[in-house]
Amino acid sequence: MASVRLENLRKEFGTVVAVKELNLHFPDGKFAAILGPSGCGKTTTMNMIAGLETPTRGSIYFDDRRMNDVPPGKRDVGFVFQNYAIFTHMTIAENIGFGLKIRGVDETTIRREVGKIAELLELTDMLNVNAGRLSVNDMQKVALGRSMIVKPRIFLLDEPFSNLDAAFRAFMRGELKRIQREIGQTMIYVTHDQVEAMSMADLIAVMDFGVLQQFGSPDEIYNQPVNTFVANFIGSPNMNFVACSFRSEDGKGYLVQKRGSARIAIDERRRQLLEHHSGNQDLIWGIRPEHMTLHAEPISSDCIQAVVRFLEPLGPKTVVHLRLGEEHIKVIAPPSYREAAGVVQWIQINPQYLHVFDAKTGVVIR
Length: 366
Ligand code: ATP
Prior knowledge:
Elements: E1 4-13, E2 16-26, E3 31-35, H1 42-50, E4 57-62, E5 65-66, E6 77-80, H2 92-101, H3 107-120, H4 136-148, E7 154-158, H5 166-183, E8 187-191, H6 194-200, E9 203-208, E10 211-216, H7 218-223, H8 228-233, E11 240-249, E12 252-257, E13 263-266, H9 268-275, E14 283-287, E15 292-295, E16 304-313, E17 318-324, E18 327-333, E19 344-349, E20 355-358
Parallel strand pairs: 3-8, 3-9, 6-7, 7-8
Antiparallel strand pairs: 1-2, 1-4, 4-5, 9-10, 11-12, 11-14, 12-13, 14-20, 15-19, 16-17, 16-19, 17-18
Adenosine-5'-triphosphate binds at residues 13, 16, 18, 36, 38-44, 192.
């Protein structure tokens, strides 16, 4: 196993800059995700790590060894793509053992190692089945096994589950996380699906337009987003954003809604921070739907008033859509919530989870 370090990595395709001065360190033995919307440079980054693309500038290190000039076949990297690559005329056992066979490993060792991988992937009972008869779901499991058996130093996975059906995808997320923890393999996983990244990875690199936005644990990315892009991309339903300005009255600080009359009191630390912020008339407050509660009456002087638009019952919770002045916001309520459209509600915001962003730059102010 090895760590992966990217230093000022850049990739241009003609006039398109796919990856811009990327600096990242994926620690040895950790499960890291590269997350971002389509076209943000995820696959290009992966391909440069694997050696399938040559960087325009910058360096790639595995541990302390610079890899830029090492050909792909010598990098000791395992790769699993969205489209499973297995031999349909071979059995599952032959597929999984293929990498060892072409390396000249003896039959007894191959059988033993195939057995271990099959156990890990829960394929033991199917080893003699012809791979051509497998479902798409099981084919992708076999593809994983085939890459894992050669024990690569780095394991790269590029949206490997996107062709699988939803239930199996959820199952495989759990399985891959379990396997990664069991074998302590350095894994880098590319996805545009924030649920996949949040549920599996130890560390997430969020990218947009070839630029790294934030790199941290799922908890950091979720609770301390550095800008509106990350705040909006993570979480479902997504964070509420309300345009506001800062006001100081009688020594107290407030965020005052621009397209409505809602006003939120802020603590002294935040007041001082915003007092000295040059763009303090052009701000956004951000709060996740799960960090507010709805009440029939104001339960404190901090409550803000909104009107129910419609409900979105999701089983274990209900997403309540409300009108706040001229803006629309969402609040998570229990499944028993029943208020009808037009009903006035009082919203209690948990100030601990309130985020304030500069509206011009999108950068958080904290
Ligand atoms: P997706 O999830 O859709 O695969 P991605 O985040 O993996 O997207 P990349 O495939 O890395 O993004 O592409 C980043 C940018 O580089 C895009 O604008 C893409 O069009 C461009 N690009 C990628 N490969 C090439 C290429 N071979 N030639 C020209 N442009 C390319």
